[in-house]
Amino acid sequence: MPRAAQGGRVTGPTVLLTLGRLPKALEVARALHGAGCRVIVAEPFKRHLTGASRAVARSVVVSSPVADREAYLGELAALVAAEGVSLVLPVSEEILHASLLRDRLPAGVRLAAMPHGSLLALHDKLSFAAVCRAAGAAAPETFALGDPRATELARRTRTVVKPLFSCSGRGVRFLAAGDALPPADEPALVQEFCAGQVLSTFSLAREGEARITVTYRGAVMQGTVAVCFERIDTPPAVEAWVGAMLRHTRFDGFVSFDLVQDAEGVIRGIECNPRATSGIHFVEPADLAAALLDPQSRRPLRFKEGRLMQQFYPCLTETQRTMFAAGPFRENLRCLLAARDVTWSARDPWPLVSQPWTSWPIIEMAMRRRCTFGEVAMLDLAWSGA
């Protein structure tokens, strides 16, 4: 274990984060820097949110794994060797690509990711439903688009159609009972629509056991993505559902689930993100760093005091939008004024101050394509199944 940083000096190992554009990367970078680590970020964008932080020693531009996965992996491996990296830590959707780095790393370098096949079994939304069944964790009826059973399901009940590898709500369609299914332009599934309260979880797991589980719900939504989120006490049914999945998969690392709790309190899983999500912002940074740096540590992980967190600029944008259009403007405004921003730190102000500039390449692309920031931010990272 590294000693705590003293006066900003590096007293611990060098850690490579394989993404920097998202607030959760900034959360991890600050936590590790606070524990004395030298933090390096590999990122396809030249400028990005985490790169503006004093917690980052160096930011390196790498190839997009979608455009050239082989070049991406080669550049990461070279960076690990050149910088004396001890820990490679994937942050978001790039984990499906970065997990293939395992056999390219020098002895003694730890990759904080499950084997690629294990991740893919959960990331693939059709495969995920099968994993739920095997684990004894409830999930809605789910069939491949084009399967006759999917057609029958859509005939008799409300359904959701989504690509097998979609993220940030890309390509998701909600259909009424009897609506015609769309053409199978890409691998997709048809899933029974679950009515009830949508809950999300984030866990840091070790060998199938949750070190901490955060349960939260969207307070302000941008499409299907929460830009303001509220932590709630984890219901026993959620704890049991997550526990069953972690034990069955022997999961190790960051893992997140989207769940629906119906009127009877029954929990059903609708998809898995085998990576960090916004729930990570509710974990005490010192405890997070300790758990990441020492997988065998049994130190308890604590929650931060605040229960309402936001990504300020997207939350502001969504609040402004609902001022002049149909939507929950009053509730959005309340959240905007009450929630703590996940990027702000008085000791490290530049990530929030400079965010319009560091995020402009993504913002400009989102405006041009008329998509959400979340959808566009993943285009050069998302696993397509190819």
- How many structural domains does the protein architecture include? 3
CATH architecture of the largest domain, please? 2-Layer Sandwich
Number of strands: 16
Which strand order do you get reading across the main beta sheet? 14-13-10-11-12-15-16
Count of DSSP-assigned helices? 14
Structural class: alpha/beta
CATH topology of the largest domain: D-amino Acid Aminotransferase, Chain A, domain 1
3D structure, described in words:
Helix 4 packs across helix 5 (125-135) and helix 9 packs antiparallel against helix 10. The protein is globular, with a radius of gyration of 20 Å. Strands 14-13-10-11-12-15-16 form a seven-stranded mixed sheet. Strands 3-2-1-4-5 form a five-stranded parallel sheet, with helices on both faces. It is of the alpha/beta class and 386 residues long. It contains 14 helices and 16 strands. It has three domains: 1-113 and 354-386, Rossmann fold (3-Layer(aba) Sandwich), CATH 3.40.50.20; 141-192; 197-353, D-amino Acid Aminotransferase, Chain A, domain 1, CATH 3.30.470.
List the helices and strands and how they pair.
Blueprint: E1 14-17, H1 23-34, E2 38-43, E3 56-61, H2 69-83, E4 85-89, H3 95-98, E5 110-111, H4 116-123, H5 125-135, E6 142-144, H6 148-156, E7 159-163, E8 173-175, E9 188-192, E10 197-206, E11 209-222, E12 225-232, H7 236-249, E13 253-261, E14 267-273, H8 285-293, E15 308-310, H9 312-323, H10 329-338, E16 340-341, H11 350-353, H12 355-358, H13 360-369, H14 373-377
Helix pairs in contact: 1-8, 4-5, 5-7, 9-10
